[in-house]
User: Fold this.
Amino acid sequence: MPTSPALTDSTSGRSIVSVSPRVRFAPSPTGALHIGGARTAVYNWAFARATGGTFVLRIDDTDPERSTDENTAQIMRSLRWLGIEWDEGPEVGGDLGPYFQTQRGAHYARALDHMKASGSAYPCFCTPDELAAKRAAARQSDGPSGYDRTCRRLDPNEARARIDAGEPHVWRIAVPLDRPDIVVDDAVRGETAFPSSAMDDFVLARTDGTPTYNFATVVDDVGMRITHVIRGDDHLSNTPRQILVFEALDAPVPRFAHLSMIWGADGKKLSKRHGATSVEAFRDEGYLPEALLNYLALLGWSLDGETTIISRETLASQFSLERISKNPAIFDFDKLEWMNGAYIREMSADALAKRMIPWLAEAGLATEDDFAARPDWYQALVPLVAERAKRMTDIPAMLAFLFGETVAIEPTAADKALATDDARRSLQAALEALGTITKWEHDAIEQTLRDLAVTLEVKPKVVFQAVRVAVTGSTVSPPLFESLALLGKERTIRRIEAAL
RNA sequence: GGCCCGUUCGUCUAGCGGUUAGGACACCGCCCUCUCAAGGCGGAGAUCACGGGUUCGAAUCCCGUACGGGCUACCA
Assistant:
């Protein structure tokens, strides 16, 4: 039997000596890490960091049908992308492993032996068909449904004989008959009581010997000395069952914190219909990990009710269970996008330049080699997009006109800004005036074009828009003079010629 | 059916017996301005799900109701 390092009060089972918290994130590798799981991971991680505790990653891969190594790899990749590092778990090791449930069979067997010996587990020979019939019958009557404990009344000798004879059986927990309400001490919801009479003798070990979720998770939480279980709301109703297992194992019951679900805009469970749901999908759509982390942290938790931009460091030092909210949250893509833009704006030119290269490369505009050859030019690009981009995926389109010799002019843009006489005069004059500039830089370009407008007696806007459309192909672009400076004199001139 | 949980602007939230119910996103207006943004200023938007209590006083405490959600598997 694994034991806890904490001294525990023999009556309450509560720790009476404070130990540093140990929390775990235990995803099932049956799919990609989605937004709900990621938020659970963030909270566990932040809590561990803020309390000086330990964050354990455990892979709950007991479902052989749906669990895959690729999913496990993707989950770990997603966590690391978010900047969430685990202190114990796959690839980093730890003293209380293994950290895959499929490798912990010996632990489950030992725990089950302990329960058999103490009489808190008993074999059940009822067949699936019989159980289905019992369930159907129970549903007709009013009382609580659940297993009717037929095999619990079996004579122990008979049970042993049937096991020896090789009869298929599962092992069920023997729920104490006279137990008072099971009270879940939840950091988010307070104390909630469940009548123990509503707990049926659920299965601990299947016919094939493998543990069920409610059993395995408790054995592991005990074995890994987990002090705080922070997980989704959907587990709240299972918690009293698990508490029964903790007690049967003579182990201290951890503190719980159940997080409400995350919904889509229609109040339904978040699904692909609502857009991206996996962490990698958000990554691919141009969201920054620090922005997603911040947004996720705020989806059900608040620092002070005022602050919205919260750094990783602040989160890791200020996070607390007390400030988790009880209500389900609807995922607001608009707010995430705003937040992502805020992070893009805050980034240093050097950092953003480096980070936008892969996106430019993917769009076929830039290459790592080109970046290495002229980093200054790329850094100068940053101010053009930093204030405008909401996601990294916005950037290539904003800068595309700076790459390549020519540019295709949008027909509607041409109609709007090039079709008038004033526009054509402006463009013609700009061509000549710009050609005379010897020092091709922002101020000179601006002065030249402004003077031009005065000379032609047209509004500066007319000149600017005409040049903008001729050079960038669109009525919407980054600031004009910076753009021309970065584009270079030759290409600017050629494009104006082409537009005339 | 049984057992649990939840309900404050459209959305995320603050609030933990006495507040003009605060902030953020989104929205609207003005300013700035070479377009688009960003930024600044301002606005609209919440009878705190509903009904009863308790209290001098309730968004805050208690009890119901309604509506959502979860669990009730040899799934996690």
